[in-house]
Structure formats: C-alpha cells, structure tokens
Automatic annotation (TrEMBL), chain A:
The lineage of its organism: Bacteria, Pseudomonadati, Pseudomonadota, Alphaproteobacteria, Sphingomonadales. It is found in: Cell inner membrane; Cell membrane. The chain crosses the membrane at residues 6-25, 46-65, 127-147, 167-188, 230-251, 272-293, 299-328, 361-382, 431-453. CDD domains: TM_PBP2. Keywords: Cell inner membrane, Cell membrane, Membrane, Phosphate transport, Transmembrane, Transmembrane helix, Transport. GO terms for biological process: phosphate ion transport. This is Phosphate transport system permease protein. One of its GO terms (molecular function) is phosphate transmembrane transporter activity. Residues 232-449 form the ABC transmembrane type-1 domain. Belongs to the binding-protein-dependent transport system permease family. CysTW subfamily.
From TrEMBL, chain B:
InterPro entries: AAA+_ATPase, ABC_transporter-like_ATP-bd, ABC_transporter-like_CS, P-loop_NTPase, PstB-like. Keywords: ATP-binding, Nucleotide-binding, Phosphate transport, Transport. CDD domains: ABC_PstB_phosphate_transporter. One of its GO terms (biological process) is phosphate ion transmembrane transport. One of its GO terms (molecular function) is ATP hydrolysis activity. Gene3D superfamilies: P-loop containing nucleotide triphosphate hydrolases (3.40.50.300). This is Phosphate transport ATP-binding protein PstB. It comes from the Bacteria.
Length: 461, 269
C-alpha cells in the first residue's frame, strides 16, 4: 500500500471519530439531561482534528524528508565500489535511480543503478509501511482519546476555536514566508553576481552590455554591467513620462468625478475608468508597440526630427501613463471624498467658486492621500514589464530624449532570462541583482506611500 | 403637511419695521418631493440678532441656508419664493452667488477651519475676493478680524500654527473671524455652539453680543436659553412653518400662538 492509501485510511478513521464523538456527546445530552458545554458537532470536530492532524503532520514531514532518508539508506547498502562519489555524481545517480523506480525511464544506463533499484524499492516500501502504520496508530490514538474525553462539560468548542485560529495563522504565514523565500533567493543570487562584478561598477557604471565571452577567443563580448542607463530608463519611462501623463489626467478625472459629475454620470464614468485597470498589460504592450510608437516616430519625422526611433521612451511611457490613470484617479477620488463636506461648505460659504474651493482647500487637504497614491503608482509603473518589453526597446541608452529608445530594468531582466542561458554566468546572475534593486526600490516606495496615506487617514478619523 | 399653514403670528413691533436687511416672502424649500420649508415670510433687521428656534427637523437650518444660497450645493434642494438683500432678489439670475456669499457670511454647526495656518484661514476670504492690496493690508485684516472675534490675544504668537490644532471653541471663533474678514453685512450662524462645551459656548455668545449692530446676525439654535440670551428677535418654526415672530422677550414671556407656548413651556420638542 502506498502512502496515499494510508492517508486515505487515516481520513476514514478521522471521519469515523467525528461521527462517534458526535453521537457520544449527543447521547450525554439526552441521557442525564445535563447541559452540554459544547454542541455535539464541536465534540465531533475536535475528535476529527485530533485524529487527522498528528497523522497528517507525520505524513507530510515524511514526504519532505523521506526521499533523502530512503536514498542514503539505499546507498549505504550498496557495495563500496558501486557507490557514487559525493556531489554531482551522487545527484545524477539518484536522479537516474528515481526515474527508474518511478517508471519514467524503462531501464537504467548505469549497471550500478540497476543494481540499486530493488534495494531502493525495498527500503522505500519498508519505510512506507512503517510511517503508514504509525499514522494509522496516531489517528486511532487521537480519535480514541477525543472519544474518551467527550464528557458533558468538556470544552470542545473552545478547543476547536483555538485550532481554527492556528490554522488561519498558518495560512497567513505561508504568504509571508514565501515572500521571505523569494527575497532570500534574490539575495543569494545577487551576492553571487556581486562576487563577480563590483557593486560599485553595477550601481555607478554607465555602460550596460551584458554579453560575456563564452570562449576566450571571442571578440566584442566583454561584458559591462553599469546599470545606470537601466535605472535611468526605468525612471524616465515609469516615473517621468508615465507620471506626466497619468498625474494630470488622473487627478483631473478624480476632481471631475467627485466634484462636478452628477451622480448619474459618476455611476457610469467611474466603472468605465476602472475598466482601464482591467486591460491586460500585454494588450497595452502591443497598443504601444504597434500603434503609439509608429505614430510618435511619424510625428517626430513630420516636425523634422531625423533619426527618431520606432521604439521610443515616449511611446512606452505615455501608454504606461494611460494604464496608471485609474490607479491615481481612484486614490485621488478616495482622498478627495474623505475630506469632510464641512470643509467644502466652509469655502463655498466664503464666496469661493467651486474651482477655487478645489484648488485652495480640497486638493491641499487631500494632498497627502494623493501623494501616497502617486507613489504607489510610481512603484507600480517601474515594476511594469510588458509594455516596456514590447515598446521601449533593448538599447541601454543614457538619454533624456524621449524619442530615443531606452530600456528598463524589467525589460532587461526578461531579455537576460529568456532563451537558453547558462546559470552561472555574470550575465544571467545580473538579472537577479537588477531584480533585487527593483524589489528594494518598490518596497521602500510602498512602505513610504502607505505610511503617508495612513497618517492622512488618521488625521480625519 | 397642512395644505394651508396657520397664519404666522407677527408681533406689531415687527410689522412696520423699515430697517430690514433681508426680507423673505413666501419661501418654500423642497428636498426632492418633500417640502421642508412652507411659505415662510420674515424680515431680518440689521441692528439685531435674530434667533430661529424650533424642534429638530422644523426647517430652521434649511431656511437659514436660503439666505446665502447654500442650498444651491445640494442637488435635490429647490427653493421657491423671494428673498431680498437690500431690496435685491438674491435668487435673481443677475445675482452673483460669489458676491452674495461675500456679503452674507456663514458659520456652521461644527467648527470647520481649513487645514491651513491660522493666518491663512483668515486670509482665505480676502484673498479670493481680492480685498487686500498688500501684505501689510492683509496683516491688518487678519489682526482686526481676530481681534473682533476675541481670538487675537490667544493666537497672536502662533499665527503659523494649523487652525485645526486649536480647541473646539477657538476653532469656532476662528471660523467667525474668517467670516468677518471679508467684511460681510449679514452673518448666518447655524447652531454655532452645538459642538462646544459650556465655557466655549459662553465665549461665543459674548462674541455674538459684541458683533451685534456691526452686522445683521441670524442664529439658528435649538437651545432656547441661548436664544433668550443672545437675540433680540426670535422666530419660532414648527414643521416647516414660521409660527410666531416677535421680540425675544415677548416670545419667551408672552407667546401668542399656542404652538409657541407649548414649545416654550416644554410641552413638546
């Protein structure tokens, strides 16, 4: 019987414990007329949990560490000569062994592996039997314990609540731990990169050309990792051009929607604007690449600017700005609506016009919230990938000319990691360093923006 | 609501007043289909403090907001009838609401200073109306307004601090100072003390008394003692009707309408 089979038995046992404990508790309630502290369903649930959880825990732990235990025991049983050396040889040996055992490949190439297969199978089934038996035993003990303890005044409800709390806490931990894991792996690969390329060169260098020579006699592929043109391109597109488009448009549409639009118009326009946020970024990407970028180039040519690139910062940035509009507008909408109506009335009663009221009272009062929204939007824009990959180009130019092609951190990461890549070259590793910088910058922006927004919210509670 | 309102009892002293700053004739206010104020006519005298009293929901605040057209900011509100300021119909299309509100200032129930410095709160009105010609002019306006509002000595050393950092009573006096900074002719006060403690209330009442004569003042209050203390004219509203209008002393000592008497003696409301 496989581990899955044992798990099924455990589940059946747990359900049986549920039913048994529930019925027993219900019988208490009827027999002596005593008031049950918890309803029978809680007694049942408590028994279910006690039967299932320890056994499940054992099985999960085993499924994580079991493979290694079986493997090392198998290797220990092999004759000295047939044993693979440590490191890569051991890994390939075990890989082949597992593939044969799982049936992925029909037969082993290595005779030593072939010899190890029956040993592996036997060790594995011994362990499975042991762990499976233990799990069933645990389930029996847990269920039985709960059954014996179900008395009228047993506080099953309290216990079940406590278990529920723990489960929810674990669920939230998963997301947090995953984030930590991602950060750690980024950090690890970045350190690897910085052991090859000096961090100073990376952060202050102005030449980006990540092609490294694979063979020593290659020419022209020296590898330069000065990331300044990338950072500049990211800021130029995401924080300058996109914001030049998004801040005025987003803010003005928020002002219109909160202050001028009739309720009927607002009911229609606001969701329409929010649809913009639901357009997949790849759609914006080809809109930028196929429609906006050629238009920008033709326009530049028509006003006599020679050599306008067909992939321009302006095209990518302005489309990204359009994408960000609903972001800014909904944040600004929220903060404008949060300004007490008394403030608006006070200003109008002084004889201020609606636009004076907006300019001098409402926007200043909502400013922290608006600034917070803009910062969040910037952090979103500089992390945005699809539009820049498709429309901004790959040339790492350090230029302030919006008609030229620039590239961004995200676009470079995509380029560095797509296709066949060796995973120990500085070129590939540089993607992790870029990712780390991007992560740190957006993290700081988000923390700061949320702090600004929160402080503002408190001011009007 | 009754189809034909009971006749408003207007005391003789007020019938022949020829010193009216504002006059309202047959003013009705609707919120959607609901009639909140029903054909009210009243004269507001420029030398006195006029109090509007009555139980909650009687339409007194709604009616007050007609005098500077603040009901315009509520989409569903509709005003009928005629209100004049110095003989000019304020609901006339030629009347500029910006200028009207500069002439008829308003103080609200809850202090609502702008989230700006004390100085900027006062300078706000003069600035949007282009009243001050220079910085020293503005300084003078700020000082005068704060002095008249009895706040100057308390805040003169911290004009740069935020207006919202003041206490509730100080904030309300700041709002009054803000209203008088544009030198209005009428000041409307909508329950200006209902959010204040008794000591702050006393200070604001004292201030209202000092401002009497310089500005025509109309105050809405649900506090009858307050009306008795600060006003010389009292109008009693009930269910959207103006029931009785007369000298404050008369209203409180010798009311002529039954509904006024019942309210004053605490039988309802």
């Amino acid at each position: 019987m496989s581990l899955g089979g044992f798990a099924l038995v455990v589940l059946v046992l747990a359900i049986a414990s549920y039913a048994a404990a529930r019925m027993r508790a219900a019988a208490f309630g009827r027999a002596d007329g005593a008031r049950l502290h918890s309803r029978p369903v809680y007694h049942g649930t408590w028994a279910f949990v006690l039967a299932l959880l320890p056994a499940l825990l054992l099985v999960s732990v085993w499924s994580i560490i079991g493979g290694n235990i079986v493997a090392s025991q198998t290797l220990a049983q092999l004759p000295e000569a047939a044993r693979p050396a440590a490191g890569i040889a051991r890994e390939t040996f075990l890989g082949e062994l597992r593939a044969v055992v799982d049936g992925t490949i029909a037969a082993a190439f290595d005779p030593n592996v072939a010899a190890a297969v029956p040993i592996y199978r036997q060790t594995q089934s011994q362990w499975t039997l042991l762990i499976g038996g233990l799990a069933i035993l645990l389930a029996l003990i847990g269920g039985g314990y709960a059954w014996m303890h179900s008395k009228a005044d047993f506080r099953a409800r309290t216990n079940v609540e406590r278990i529920a709390t723990i489960l929810l806490a674990v669920a939230s931990l998963v997301a947090i731990l995953t984030t930590f894991g991602i950060v750690l792996s980024l950090l690890y690969e970045s350190l690897e990169f910085f052991s090859r390329v000096s961090p100073l060169e990376f952060i202050f260098g102005t030449h980006w050309s990540p092609q490294t020579a694979i063979r020593s006699d290659q020419v022209g592929s020296t590898g330069a990792f000065g990331a300044v043109p990338l950072f500049w391109g990211t800021i130029f597109i995401g924080a300058v051009i996109a914001m030049l488009v998004a801040i005025p448009l987003g803010l003005m549409s928020a002002i219109y929607l909160t202050q001028y639009a009739r309720p009927g118009a607002r009911k229609v326009l606001k969701p329409l604007l929010e649809i913009l946020a639901g357009v997949p970024t790849v759609v914006y990407g080809y809109f930028a690449a196929l429609t906006v970028a050629p238009a920008v180039r033709d326009f530049a040519m028509s006003i006599g600017i020679a050599g306008a690139s067909s992939e321009s910062a302006l095209a990518a940035g302005s489309v990204m700005g359009i994408m960000i509009i609903p972001f800014i507008s909904s944040m600004a909408d929220d903060s404008l609506s949060a300004v007490p109506g008394a403030m608006r009335d006070g200003s109008l009663a002084m004889g201020a016009t609606p636009s004076e009221t907006i300019k001098r009272v409402l926007v200043p009062a909502a400013l922290p919230g608006i600034v917070g929204g803009v910062l969040l939007a910037v952090s979103r824009a500089i992390g945005e990938t699809m539009i820049v990959v498709m429309a901004a180009g790959q040339a790492a130019n350090l230029t302030a000319n919006p008609l030229e092609s620039v590239t961004t951190v995200t676009a470079q990461i995509v380029q560095l990691l797509t296709g066949d890549q060796e995973f120990d070259s500085a070129k590939t590793l540089s993607a992790f360093a870029l990712g780390l910088v991007l992560f740190i910058v957006t993290l700081l922006l988000n923390i700061y923006a949320l702090a600004v927004v929160k402080r503002y919210r408190e001011a009007y509670e | 609501m009754a189809e034909a309102p009971e006749e408003t009892v207007v005391h003789d002293e007020l019938k022949f007043a020829n010193d009216s700053k504002m006059t309202a004739r047959d003013v009705s206010v609707y919120y959607g289909a609901k009639k909140a104020v029903d054909r009210v006519s009243i004269d507001v005298d420029s030398h006195f403090v006029t109090a509007f009293i009555g139980p909650s929901g009687c339409g007194k605040s709604t009616f007050l907001r007609c005098f500077n057209r603040m009901n315009d900011t509520i989409d569903i509100a509709r005003v009928e009838g005629d209100i004049q300021l110095d003989g000019e119909n304020i609901y006339d299309t030629r009347m500029d609401v910006v200028q009207l509100r500069a002439r008829v200032g308003m103080v609200f129930q809850k202090p609502n200073p702008f989230p700006k410095s004390i100085y900027e709160n006062i300078a706000y009105g003069p600035r949007i109306h282009g009243i001050a010609d220079s910085k020293s002019d503005m300084d003078r306006i700020v000082e005068t307004s704060l002095t008249r509002a009895g706040l100057w000595n308390e805040v003169k050393d911290r004009l740069d601090e935020s207006g919202t950092a003041l206490s509730g009573g100080q904030q309300q006096r700041l709002c009054i100072a803000r209203a008088i900074a544009v030198d209005p002719e009428v000041i409307l006060m909508d329950e200006p003390c209902s959010a204040l403690d008794p000591i702050a209330t006393a200070k604001v009442e004292e201030l209202i008394d000092e401002l009497r004569g310089r500005y025509a003042i109309v105050i809405v209050t649900h506090n009858m003692q307050q009306a008795a203390r600060v006003s010389q004219r009292t109008a009693f509203f009930h269910l959207g009707n103006l029931v009785e209008y007369g000298p404050t002393e008369e209203i409180f000592t010798n009311p002529r309408a039954d509904r006024t008497r019942d309210y004053i003696t605490g039988r309802f409301g």
